[in-house]
Q: What sequence folds into this?
């Protein structure tokens, strides 16, 4: 989306080096005359309701049945890949530093902050198993799960795809992601496992067999599930 | 204050506010002079406050700014100045909620990313001691809770 001078983020132009710009009034610019919303990174935003999320998921379910979760994952995956490129550009602009040289946790928090402002929820990244080739992401207040409520199964496939796409581009290695615990299963928060495809397939198999997030963590830490 | 005004506007849409709902105005008006004086004192004393906090931290933990073979004193100073300035405006406007939303929520995640919680905890604890030399009792009563908010939020 090309920004015109009228809709470019004025506060950002005034304070290009301001890093704490995630409060509602700072992050979003409401262009009343144009009927548009621009965010700090000059991306156009659209406000949607919970009805929109329900409509999207149910419509997809009706069209393609159980394949809808795979489609949501794929949408997320492509989104994450594209977003990683946009992120690299704005990170470099804002911090005058290549993302490759930045502290990893700082980089990840910086990537996720726009999503927090946009209402996608807060997260917590658990990198303690990174050397073993997998990691966990806890997500609080998933927009999808919060909307659907307790439906007894994981529903945040869009997020799983988003994480897989973003991290695949960032580490330049093919990664997959699966949600192993979801607010929509009656849990208090969502939990994602990110890693190589073999491991994620193993986790999916264990889940089908009835394993919960704790069982999966235990089995992975015991070295099961391949590389 | 500004957060309270916004809440008031939303809550009283199309009607007059009750006396109870207007109480925060009274409370603010009785303290606004103190807030303004304290704000100006902090502004004037910023370099001394920062230098004294730094000296205390170094005395307490000589290697506090040495992380991964790097001296992070200059970075600490930039961060601490920013928190102090936002704290001062939170004091002036009596708006800790806005302070939390505009700076602390974001800064907490960044400090955690760098594992700097301990240093933050010590910094805003030391600042609460140092600031007593610059503000009087009445001013401290208004400002110390804001520094404590930074200590608690950034220190964990």
A:
């Amino acid at each position: 989306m090309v920004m015109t001078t009228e809709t470019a983020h004025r506060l950002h132009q005034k304070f290009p080096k301001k890093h704490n710009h995630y409060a509602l009034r700072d992050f979003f610019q409401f262009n009343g005359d144009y009927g548009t919303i621009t965010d700090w990174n000059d991306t156009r935003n659209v406000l949607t309701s919970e009805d929109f999320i329900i409509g999207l998921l149910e419509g997809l379910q009706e069209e393609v049945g159980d394949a809808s979760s795979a489609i949501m994952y794929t949408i997320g995956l492509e989104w994450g890949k594209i977003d990683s490129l946009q992120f690299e550009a704005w990170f470099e602009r804002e911090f005058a530093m290549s993302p490759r040289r930045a502290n990893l946790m700082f980089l990840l928090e910086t990537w996720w902050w726009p999503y927090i402002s946009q209402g996608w929820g807060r997260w917590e990244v658990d990198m303690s198993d990174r050397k073993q080739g997998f990691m966990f992401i806890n997500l609080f207040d998933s927009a999808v799960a919060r909307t659907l409520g307790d439906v007894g199964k994981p529903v945040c496939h869009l997020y799983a795809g988003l994480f897989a796409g973003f991290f695949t581009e960032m580490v330049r290695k093919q990664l997959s992601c699966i949600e192993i615990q979801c607010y929509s299963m009656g849990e208090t928060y969502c939990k994602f496992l990110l890693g190589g495809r073999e491991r994620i397939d193993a986790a999916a198999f264990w889940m089908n067999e009835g394993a919960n997030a704790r069982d999966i963590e235990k089995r992975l830490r015991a070295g099961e599930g391949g590389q | 204050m500004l957060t309270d005004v916004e809440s008031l506007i939303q809550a009283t849409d199309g009607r007059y506010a009750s006396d109870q709902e207007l109480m925060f105005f009274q409370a603010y008006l009785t303290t606004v002079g103190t807030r303004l004086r304290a704000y100006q004192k902090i502004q004037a004393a910023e370099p001394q406050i920062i230098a004294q906090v730094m000296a205390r931290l170094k005395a307490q933990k000589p290697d506090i700014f040495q992380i991964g073979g790097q001296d992070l004193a200059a970075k600490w100073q930039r961060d601490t100045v920013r928190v102090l300035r936002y704290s001062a405006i939170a004091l002036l406007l009596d708006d800790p909620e806005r302070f939390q939303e505009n700076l602390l929520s974001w800064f907490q995640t960044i400090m955690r990313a760098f594992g700097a919680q301990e240093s933050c905890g010590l910094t805003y604890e030391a600042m609460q001691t140092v600031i007593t030399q610059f503000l009087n009792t009445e001013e401290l009563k208004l400002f110390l809770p804001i520094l404590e908010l930074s200590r608690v939020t950034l220190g964990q």
User: Anything to note?
Assistant: Chain B has a mean pLDDT of 94. The radius of gyration of chain B is 18 Å. The helical segments of chain B are 2-11, 19-60, 73-93, 96-113, 117-130, 137-154.
